[in-house]
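Progress report, Aim 2. The chain analyzed during this reporting quarter is listed below.
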Amino acid sequence: MLSANEFKRLVRVEASVRRVDAPADLLDGISSIFVARGQTTHESIGTVIDLAQHEMARLGTAQKEVARSARADLVLGLTTPEAMVSVRQREESIRPAVEQLRRDYFRTTTAPFLSYEKAIVWLRSLAVIRQKPNEKQMNRLFADVREAMARFPNDYHLELSMGSHAIPLLAPKPGARQGSVVFDKGSALEKLKTVTESMSAGTGCDVPLCVAHVLTGAPLLLRPLDWSIEFSTGCGLLRRSATINILQPHAITLPVLAQAYRKLRKELGLANKKTMMEWHEQLLRLVEKHGGVPRRGKRDFWEGIQRTWNQAVPQGGRRYETWMGPKMAYDRLQRALKNR
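Predicted structure tokens for the chain:
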């Protein structure tokens, strides 16, 4: 076992050798978790780096765009006593399932691998991939399935979906290895996939972390929050919605929440766009009240809008000096609504 300081130093050295794009404070934070658990072996160094890379991949590019204080808040969210106790409680709750998986695969209740790299080698050794059918065979299979679905009564709602069976891995350095181990349904890794997905749903940690916990004893890392963007369609419309999911309320600070908000707006293409204000809605209603923009006589129309607007605007409110003012504001508003 290495001392705490030596363990952290070697983690930094190994990360530098690997050219891992992870800040030192994140490496130190995850190292501290291993130190608190007495997992300061040479083999654990690589696992710390793998976990740091995984967290960086989940944070995305926003990590580089926020102040150091906000990043420190995120690291703190992983390492506060409350967070570490909470994770310990979750690990204790899933311990029976973890030990049963280890017995099923390795006939032991202890972590079977000292390093995550060795665990990946074992996963790939059990992955069984049968030869995939060629395009002609696939078309024939799809035709057979569609024909079978057509035999159901019309009041049955049937959908065809496809998906591969895979166990996701901790996000690696780009180009280092594939992001998952793919296998056939019903093969040896099926149970590991099913149980670790259940662990993920129960603990709030993602599946790769649960797999690493089962195979190496690596600690679960429960981030303060995560976010997602969903798409849905109906009546010819495409709707986007966004969700910020607070996983550990006690670890949330305003900078942490603000970072997720900025990242969401960037992903939605709204990073540099202003939100609508009350006068935008008033201008839209005024134009609609006058029957909308006509094909002819537009100048007369906008001069009327200008007069009506300026008469109704309160003292100190937005006023237009010429008819071009409301026209340009309306045109900008229409473009913004179209883009949304």
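The chain has a mean pLDDT of 83. Residues 52 and 163 are 29 Å apart (CA to CA). These observations will guide the mutagenesis work planned for the next reporting period.
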